[in-house]
Amino acid sequence: MKCPSCERENQPSSKFCVQCGRPLKRKKASSKNALNNIYKILEKIFVSVVKLLSLVVSNWTVRSSFSEKKDREKRHPDTQGVGNVRY
Ligand SMILES: [Zn+2]
């Protein structure tokens, strides 16, 4: 196989280039495994993000509806007094 840096032809079984000593990459298994690992990690991240988002959204909707009610009750007497401010 060819060395990626100096392009010297090496034995297919050799792990390092005979000329520059660079480690020779084997594309067969390692890259596939790395890709699989990345996909697995991405899947895990995606799942956890989705879980977190659904949790946050459900919390947020409950909170916002609650605070909206509270705000209206609070603001009601003020808006009557000022008159100019509309919500
Ligand atoms: Zn080389």
Short summary of the structure?
The chain has 87 residues and is mainly α.
Walk me through what this model shows.
It is a single chain. With 87 residues, this protein is an all-alpha fold. The protein has a domain at 31-79. 62% of the residues lie in helices and 0% in strands. The protein has one helix at 29-82. Bound molecules: zinc ion (ZN). The site of zinc ion (ZN) has 8 residues, from loops.
Topology:
Layout: H1 29-82
Bound molecules: zinc ion.
Zinc ion binds near residues 6 and 17.
Name the descriptors.
mainly alpha, 87 residues, single chain, binds zinc ion
- Which small compounds were modeled alongside the protein? zinc ion
Poorly predicted regions are none
> Structural class of the helix and strand makeup?
mainly alpha
Helix fraction? 55-70%
- The average pLDDT value, as a whole number, equals 82
